[in-house]
Structure formats: C-alpha cells, structure tokens
C-alpha cells in the first residue's frame, strides 16, 4: 500500500511538471512562431525529423538554454524531437553514444577530448560570471573563513575560481586551512541555511537564492573580464558521430541554441518562469539569476565563439597551475564551427545592438530591468 501511494505521488508530481511544461509551450507559441518565421528553413529530412536528439546539461544556470529550448516550444517549432537530460555525465554519455549535444563546462570539455571522447566545441554559450563564494552572515571578512566549515569541492588545487578568489581575498589557497566538504550546490545551500556550513562555492541560482531569502551574502563572484584578457566558461559541445550522421539536424540544433538565448534576452520574464520551474526555485530567484547573466554582468550568454577568450582562459589556468594536464592544448583540436556556420544563425552582436540594447540597455538596475521585463510581455502579477 505504501509503495502504491509513493508511486501515485510520483506520478502526480511528474504529471504536474509535464502539464506545466506543456502549458508554457502553448503560452509561448506565438512568440516562438514569430521568431522562427524570420528564418528560411526547409523541412528536415525524414530520418532527422524522426530522430530524437539527446541533449545534456548540468544543473547550472549557465546552461539554461537547454530547458528554454524544450519548454518554450523552440525545438518543436523547428521540427525536432529533443529529450533533455540534466546532470548527466556528458563525456561518458557521448563516448557511449547516448548523448548527441550538451552544455558542458570548460575543463570538462577539454579533458573529454583529450581522452578520446568524440565531441567538439560547436558554439559559444557562456563567457563567464555567475559563480560565487556565498557566506553565512557569521562570516564578516575573508579571514573569518579560515578554519571554518566550507564547501569548495573535492579538488581546489585545480579549481580556477578557488585559486583566483583566495588570491584576491588574501587568504590561504591550501584547503587544509579550512574544514572542507564536497556536495551539490543545492545541498550546500541548505546545509548553510541549517547552520552546518559557513560558506560554499556555487553557480546560480544558489547565490541569488541566498540573497532572496536573506540567508547569506556573496563575498566574491567570478569575473572573467581580467586585466590580462577576457576569459570564458561553458560551451556547446556536440558528438561528432551524431553530427556526421545528421549534419542538417546538427545545424538545426545549433540554430535552436541561438533562438533559446534570443528568447531569454527578449522575453526574460517568460524565460525566468521556465527556469524557476526546472530548477525548483521561486520565480523571483529565476528573475534575479537571469538579470545577472543578461545585464548586470554583461551579455554573458552568447553564441559568438571567441577563440581569444578561450586562449586567455588557458593562459590564466597556466598562471595558477590549474589543470596542467590540459591548459596547454591546441584549441584547433577542439573547435569545429562547420555545423554552426551552416545553421543560418544571425550575428550575435547585431542582435544585441538592434533588439536588446534599445529595450534592456546595460547598466539597468534590477528594479528597472524587472519592470521592463514585466511590461514587454504584458505580465499581470
């Protein structure tokens, strides 16, 4: 009986999620249709239209485009069947042929190719920012962290954020000076709220959640706009076997990536609704999260791949001796823009200048940005 009740509860919960997803797709149907109509797209070949693309992403706000593409209806409007897998082990899944495209971290991607995983960097996704060292209010200064319970992950010697932040804050980078733990961002947040941790490193939405719930504060955040040159972050990776077998579908998926980012820039309130539903956080946290990436920190979500940014990131890794096994790679072995260039994607800089800057200019306060987001889509709160 107990198992039946649990099964029923799970069924109801899953049904609720699916219903919410379907409702959002219907609600955004006219917006997405208008976006897609600007492109002269031929129907996909039958073998591509019938194929279900497996798209992976990690539970990090940098990779929001995956769920935006799914729940806004963009994938469907482009004639594709797509299943998204959150928190999947991207390199392993691609090696086994179970994943076709993914949003993946910078070092994850570099290491995967080095060990023979058949993936390549197919497009830009995130140029940096939105990673934080969040502290409880008991922590007043950086030196208060020494000897305290923190969650900084299992390999801080190869964590560029940790190496940069400790240098900037003037505190030891040797993790032995702290009582360190390793757990998911969500678990670390709730551990801090429960008084079990004094600080933790994370991506959003957990930095924004701490600010929203007034449970902690951000001591320092990632900034890839370094004096030595702008760095970079997560990328869109694609399985070579998939791309070679389905070249038109591969290009269509990359076009979908650009449309998902366009949707976020032009309809941030609706994007935040999708984000909050998928990441199980309040809508306000979703809005705060998107504001940081779309405005406060710059136009950090992008499809314009910048090779120099990537080289700068490698150079910074060398400076701190982070991942010496991969920080001297030849980027030409990793990048292939063939499928992106065939996608028909519009120019990112032109899109920002003509469609985003006039409505959401850089430097807006969160209050003003939020108000404009509400007005753009006629939201009634």
TrEMBL record:
Keywords: Signal. It is found in: Periplasm. One of its GO terms (cellular component) is periplasmic space. Its main location: periplasm. It comes from the Bacteria. Residues 1-25 form the signal peptide. Pfam families: NMT1. Gene3D superfamilies: Periplasmic binding protein-like II. The keyword Signal applies. The keyword Chloroplast does not apply. InterPro entries: SsuA/THI5. Residues 65-271 form the SsuA/THI5-like domain. PANTHER family: ALIPHATIC SULFONATES-BINDING PROTEIN-RELATED, TAURINE-BINDING PERIPLASMIC PROTEIN. Belongs to the bacterial solute-binding protein SsuA/TauA family. This is ABC-type nitrate/sulfonate/bicarbonate transport system, periplasmic component.
């Amino acid at each position: 009986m107990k198992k039946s009740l649990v099964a029923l509860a799970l069924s109801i919960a899953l049904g609720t999620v699916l219903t919410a997803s379907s409702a959002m797709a219907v609600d955004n149907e006219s917006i997405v249709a208008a976006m897609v109509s600007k492109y002269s797209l031929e129907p996909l070949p039958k073998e591509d239209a019938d194929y279900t693309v497996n798209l992976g992403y990690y539970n990090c706000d940098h990779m929001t485009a995956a769920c935006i593409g799914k729940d806004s209806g963009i994938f469907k409007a482009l004639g594709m069947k797509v299943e998204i897998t959150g928190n999947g082990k991207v390199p392993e899944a691609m090696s086994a042929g179970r994943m076709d495209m993914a949003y993946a971290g910078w070092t994850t991607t570099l290491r995967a190719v080095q060990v023979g995983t058949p993936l390549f960097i197919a497009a830009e996704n995130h140029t940096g920012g939105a990673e934080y060292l969040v502290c409880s209010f008991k922590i007043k200064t950086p030196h208060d962290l020494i000897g305290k319970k923190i969650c900084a992950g299992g390999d801080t010697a190869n964590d560029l954020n940790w190496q940069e932040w400790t240098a900037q804050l003037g505190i030891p980078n040797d993790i032995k000076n702290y009582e360190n733990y390793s757990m998911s961002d969500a678990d670390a947040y709730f551990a801090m709220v429960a008084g079990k941790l004094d600080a933790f490193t994370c991506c959003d939405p957990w930095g924004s959640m701490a600010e929203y719930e007034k449970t902690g504060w951000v001591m320092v955040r990632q900034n890839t706009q370094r004096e030595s040159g702008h760095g970079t972050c997560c990328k869109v990776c694609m399985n070579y076997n998939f791309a070679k077998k389905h070249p038109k579908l591969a290009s269509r998926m990359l076009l979908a990536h650009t449309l998902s980012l366009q949707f976020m820039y032009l309809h941030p309130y609706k994007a935040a609704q999708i984000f909050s539903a998928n990441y199980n956080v309040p809508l306000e946290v979703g809005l705060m999260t998107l504001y940081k990436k779309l405005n406060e920190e710059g136009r950090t979500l992008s499809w314009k791949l910048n090779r120099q940014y990537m080289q700068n990131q490698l150079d910074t890794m060398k400076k701190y001796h982070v991942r010496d096994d991969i920080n001297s790679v030849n980027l030409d072995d990793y990048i292939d823009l063939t499928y992106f260039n065939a996608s028909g994607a519009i120019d990112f800089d032109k899109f920002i200048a003509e469609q985003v800057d006039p409505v959401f200019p850089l430097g807006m306060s969160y209050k003003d940005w939020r108000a404009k987001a509400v007005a753009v889509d006629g939201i009634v709160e």
